[in-house]
Every structure is written in C-alpha cells, then in structure tokens.
Design brief:
Length: 672
C-alpha cells in the first residue's frame, strides 16, 4: 500500500508539510504507512486564526448549542468509523483495542453532549454555587460565574489513543466554547488525521474551531498567551520540559498534564485463593497487561498481594498469560497485538531490564519477537519483586507495554504505604470485600491517586474495570501522574473557563446571569403566571398569593388523611417537650400542600407538569393559628424542546410577620 502523505489543517486549509517528511511505520509489518511533516506552518497565525474566528463563533453559541454540535460530530464519526477501524490495525491494535479508542472516543462525545444539555444552562455563562449575602439589607451580593477563555486550547496527545485521546479533550473544550489546535503523537497521527477529516467534512464546526498539526509544534509555544490552555498527555520528561517553557511561566498559561504513572492494584488482606476477589484480581491484571499491549496510561504496573498469596497469585497469573496469543491484530484469534513501534519496543525492553534488577522475570521473554521480526510484537512480561521496600525501579520506572510486577505486602497498612511509593498515580484498584479496608485505603492513600476503583464480587459484573477512564469521572492524578485533571463530567469543562467572583446589586447580578436573584426588582403578575406560555414569562415575574390560616383541625385532618401522625403534630405534651417546637406544629408537607393550594391556577393551560422541587428547606415551624402566604417568582428558564421548556420557580412561604417559613425551587414543564 502506498503511504499516505498526511496534511495539517491550518487557518481553514488542508496543507502538507513543506519538507522534512518523517516516515511512520506500521506496527505490524514495519511498512511505511504515512509521511508527515508540519514544516512551513505559521504557528503564530494558527493561534491568531483560532482566537479571531473559532473563539468568537463558539462563544456566541449557548452550552446547549455546543452540546448539539458534539452530538452531530459523534454521529458523523459513527457513520464513518469503519474507515478508522481499518487504519487502526496499522497501530498494532486489535479490534477490541480499537473499540476502546474509536467507540470509546465517540462515546465520550455522546456523554458530554447529554450532560451539556442536562446539566448546563442554555446560556453562555455558568453560575458556580449559591448567591452570597454580603450586606445587611441585601443590596450588595456576591456570585461566582464561569466564562469561556478567549484563547486557544492546545492539545498535545499521546500515541496510544489517537482517537479517544483527542475526543476526550475536545468534548469539554468545545462545550466550554474554546477553539482547539490538536497535535497528535506522530507515531499514530494518521489515525487522528482521518478522524479530524471526518469531523471537518461534516461541516458542523465553525471556522477556526479545530486545527491540526501533524508533526513538530515549531515555535507554537512562543505565541501562547494568558488566555490559552495547554493540555498534554505523554511522558513525564516531555511534560517537565513543556511546563517549564518560559512563555508558560511568564504568561501563566494553564498547563494540564496527564503522564505515565506506576498505577497499583491491591488484592485485599481479606482475600484467599478461593475468594471471588482473588480471581477478579488475576483477570484484571492480565487484562490490563494485554489490552492495547499494555500501552495504557492507566495500566496496572504494580500488583500488590498479601505475602501468603504471592506464589498462588504468580501461578494464577502465569496460567492466564499462557492463554494470550500474540499476533496479527486482524486475526480474531489474536488476544494481544503489537506495540506501536519498534523504537517503543526497544524502550520497553530497556525498562524491563531496569525493573528486573529489583527482582526477576517470572513469565515471558522480553527479547523474543513473537509473530514476526519486522513488527513491534513482544510477549507479556510478568516480574516479581520479593522485597518491594528495598526496590526502587519497580516504583519508579514505567515499561509502557504488557509489563507488570507482582510484589508482597505484610498487612493492610503496608499495602497502602507501598501503593503510595508510586508518588502519585492516575488510578489504583482495590480488590476487597472488606469495607473497613476500603475505608482505610481512602483515608491513607486517597491523596495519592486520581481515581480508586473498588472491585468485588458484588460489583464485578457491572464494573467498568481498573483501566477505563469514564467521561463522568475525573481522569488525571497527583505527582508522578502529572498533577492534572481531565473530564469528570462538567468539571472538565471548567478547565477551559475562568471563574470570576461578581459583586453588586442583585438587579445587576440578575441581569448578567439571566436569573432571578432575591432582592432584585420584581414584576408583579398582571395575570396568573400559570396562564402564560414559556416565552411569555419574564424572569422575576411574581405572583403574591392571599394568606391562609392553618388551624389545629387542618393539622389533625392532614395527619389522619395521610397517616403521618408524628407526635410533633399530634401529641401536645410530647411536642411541648421538643426543644425545637415547644408545642404542636404543622407538617412540613402540609405547608407544601397548602402553598400549592394558594398559588395553583386550576384550569388547563400551558403548565404541563410539575416535576419536582429542589433545595427545599423548612425554615421556621408553623403553629396552629398562624397563617402562610406564598411568593411565586420565575427564577430561570430552559427551553428543552422547540415547544416545551422548563421553568424554575422560586417559592417563598412566609408567615404573618413576613418571616420565611419554607423556601424551595419548583420545576414545571411549560408549553412554549
Ligand atoms: P512523549 O512525551 O515523547 O510524547 C507525547 C506527545 O508530546 C506527543 O504528541 C509528542 O509528539 C509530543 N512532544 C514531544 N516532545 C515535544 C516537544 N518538545 N514539544 C511539543 N510536543 C512534544 O511520549 P511518547 O508518545 O513518545 O511516549 C513515551 C513514553 O511516555 C511512553 O513510553 C510512556 O512511558 C509514556 N506515555 C504515557 C502516556 C499516558 O497516557 N500517560 C501515553 C503515552 C506515553 P511526537 O510524537 O511528534 O514527538
């Protein structure tokens, strides 16, 4: 097959490098599959193009519109994913490996589009937390908001997940309204280039939202500014070099790093050779060693087992590893494909040698070339280190391949201390059925890991496993793992936005954030709000109801009718002894029910459904003879479908003295 010449996508055009083409070779047979270069690109102009076109266009869209863009991109990629699967074989990946990369990547877009529409407002500003009262009379209040950074997200990605690695960073970036320049690792950049082509050809993204560099980044870093973000995945040494670039320091450019780490998996002290957790641990270690030929930043590099189970664990692992056939990734019988390149294989062999100095290889020959000579195939290699406290390399050196080291621990505390010797990891898994041990792990080791997965007989069937970063959960870890954080649902979006504390009169804060804030001038309802359609309800439109007295008869009737005859409502003597009430009080639910009775307009109209309450608080008890009154105010609105929208109402229930009795948000679905 003739090699493809890869193209960069710069300033709205596909352009091949002007010279110095590098050869990218198939991991399977060593043939040149692609030629690549970024020579001749004007990197400063690319950044400007993104800032001048991509950023403003994306920032004009609401979170929901950006989420719909992700949805359309996911559909475009799905429709042409066979093209990506085909190319992926040359990276050494089996079909199963490619599924994690390609479908996993598309799935990340799918999760983010859903979360974007459910959890973010149909707006361009994101409110963070509650309104803070900063003054006695409420004329000066505080609120935190996030706004989109006005720069560019530079994504520098690793070779092992050419599609997922790009999409997991793009999803939160686009949702945040920030344009991106993607620089994939050269070795597998032909697959990233193909995925970028599919996205651009679908014509979904605004001009300047996405650019691609296939090759070196030249003087790109020289042109970064304070509004830019660099998000890096790769080796600790490159991360260290890039994060100390003078422009990154001078401009305080946000730098997010996710780098190799010595992830551990612990078989709990409660395990025995017959316990389900023992089998689950063995299966997971082998899976993590062999999926993607162990080229996963989350792979298990250190297996910690109770000392008495060391031999049993070693035997069980060897028995399972013997079943792993290494070979042509296209062959369905193949269990493990190739490393990405022969140079990467040389690196893995070198690292195994260093680790073996701390112990011994107990399975696999790192110098063998299973399947063929020209490809980058290697056997899985299991090492054993009997004295992990005397060892250094096992806790420090990562062989980025199908390599793991088994080591003993004496007790739970020893296991935790050994896990922490990795000096920070992306993930640790713990195979235990003992919740006390699980608690100890989190208290004594939580701060060393970005994620901890507890896997046991009850969760195993549905568990997503040790090594899968889920878009809902944060991915990244402290220390050796880079100190960064990606994804984690909407948390990941905020890495591409700036949080600003706003202070001012509630009228100003409400106008900026397009939501009702108590203390702002309200618009008294000229007709009942339930008679108005979604679009005819302005923020701050308020109905004040009549008041209604709550009698002892009401309380008793409500108690017998609902069956809630709790002493505080029914037993005068017992209620009098209650230090909070000092006598009988109305049910909280009675207050809610009466409040609805006060504010509801009964006739059919645009309100289609009441679907819940948020933030409900009963603030002050109501005694028989007291009266309640309700203020119902339009707080914010989200159009959910062209003809339907969610209205969030601020409901404030007060007594005759004007004191708050109860407060909550009511959610209704209204016709638009
Ligand atoms: P690198 O750190 O060398 O490369 C990662 C990315 O950085 C690639 O896109 C690379 O581009 C780019 N890069 C390298 N140098 C520069 C530079 N000076 N300026 C700008 N970009 C740069 O990692 P590798 O991919 O070579 O893998 C090496 C090791 O890293 C592995 O053996 C493994 O230990 C670890 N690793 C960790 C991963 C993780 O997810 N945590 C993933 C992959 C690897 P280019 O390819 O063009 O050089």
């Amino acid at each position: 097959m003739k090699p493809i010449t890869l193209q960069n996508y710069a300033e709205g055009h596909w352009v091949a490098g002007a010279g110095g083409l590098a050869e990218l070779r198939s991991a399977v047979n060593g043939d040149v599959v692609a030629l690549t270069s970024s020579q001749g690109l004007d990197f400063g102009a690319m950044l400007r193009f993104a800032r001048e076109h991509g950023g403003p266009a994306l920032r004009k869209l609401t979170f929901h519109q950006r989420a719909l863009m992700l949805k359309a991109l996911a559909e475009a990629l799905t429709a042409r994913k066979d093209e990506l699967y085909e190319l992926s074989y040359s990276t050494g990946a089996t079909k199963g490996d490619s599924w994690i990369d390609i479908d996993g990547g598309i799935g990340t877009f799918a999760v983010y589009q859903g979360k974007g529409r459910r959890e973010l407002p149909n707006d361009t500003i994101l409110i963070d937390g509650a309104v803070e009262a900063l003054s006695r009379n409420g004329t000066f209040q505080g609120l935190h908001v996030y706004t989109s950074l006005q720069g560019v997200a530079v994504h520098i990605n690793a070779f092992n997940f050419p599609v997922w690695g790009m999409l997991e960073k793009l999803a939160p970036t686009f949702l945040a309204g920030v344009p991106a320049i993607v620089k994939p690792a050269s070795a597998t950049s032909y697959l990233t280039e193909a995925a970028v082509r599919i996205m651009l050809e679908a014509n979904i993204l605004p001009k300047g939202a996405l650019q691609l560099i296939v090759g070196a980044t030249g003087d790109l870093f020289e042109h970064l500014t304070t509004q830019d973000v660099v998000s890096f995945t790769g080796s600790a040494s490159t991360a260290a070099k890039l994060r100390t670039h003078p422009v990154i320091t001078r401009e305080s450019v946000r730098f997010v790093a996710e780098q190799d780490s010595l992830n551990a998996s612990v078989l709990g002290p409660d395990a025995s050779p017959d316990s389900p957790e023992f089998d689950l641990f063995i299966k997971e270690v082998v899976r993590e060693m062999t999926v993607k030929a162990g080229q996963k930043c989350t792979a298990i590099r250190r297996g910690l087992v109770p000392a008495k189970l060391l031999d049993a664990a070693q035997d069980a692992l060897k028995a399972r590893l013997e079943k792993i056939t290494v070979g042509d990734p296209r062959d369905e019988a193949t269990k493990m494909g190739a490393l990405v390149s022969t140079s990467q294989r040389n690196d893995v062999r070198d690292k195994i040698k260093q680790i073996a100095a701390d112990g011994a290889i107990v399975y696999g020959d790192p110098n063998a070339s299973p399947f063929n000579e020209k490809g980058a195939f290697i056997s899985p290699v299991l090492l054993r280190c009997d004295k992990p406290w005397d060892a250094r390399a096992v806790h420090d050196v990562e062989a980025f391949g199908p390599v793991s080291t088994l080591m003993p621990y004496q007790d739970g505390a020893d296991a935790i201390a050994l896990a922490n010797r990795g000096k920070g990891s992306l993930v640790m898994s713990v195979f235990t059925h003992d919740t006390d041990f699980a608690g100890d792990v989190v208290h004594s080791s939580g701060s060393f890991h970005g994620r901890i997965a507890f896997i046991d007989r009850d969760s195993a069937k549905e568990s997503t496993g040790h090594g899968s970063p889920m878009p809902h959960m944060t991915h990244g870890g402290p220390g050796r793992a880079g100190g960064g954080e990606e994804m984690g649902g909407i948390r990941g979006v905020k890495h591409y936005m700036q949080r600003t504390a706003l202070q001012g009169h509630p009228r100003v804060l409400a106008a900026i954030t397009n939501r009702y804030i108590a203390g702002m001038p309200v618009q008294e309802a000229s007709e009942h709000p339930f008679r108005r359609k979604f679009h005819d309800l302005p923020i701050g439109y308020q109905l004040k109801t009549k008041s209604r007295e709550i009698t002892l008869d009401d309380i008793e009737h409500f108690a017998h009718f609902t069956g809630d005859t709790f002493y505080a409502h029914m037993d005068e003597a017992a209620a009098a002894a209650n230090p909070l009430f000092g006598g009988r009080v109305a049910h909280g639910y009675l207050i809610l029910a009466f409040a609805a009775g006060l504010f509801v307009d009964p006739d059919p109209g645009p309100v289609l459904a009441n679907y819940g309450l948020d933030n409900l608080r009963f603030v002050k008890p109501v005694k028989p003879g007291e009266a309640i009154q309700v203020a119902l105010t339009v707080k914010d609105k989200t159009l959910r479908k062209p003809d339907q929208g969610e209205v969030r109402w601020d409901v404030l229930v007060t007594n005759r003295e004007g004191e708050t009795v109860a407060a909550y948000d009511l959610l209704t679905m209204n016709a638009a």
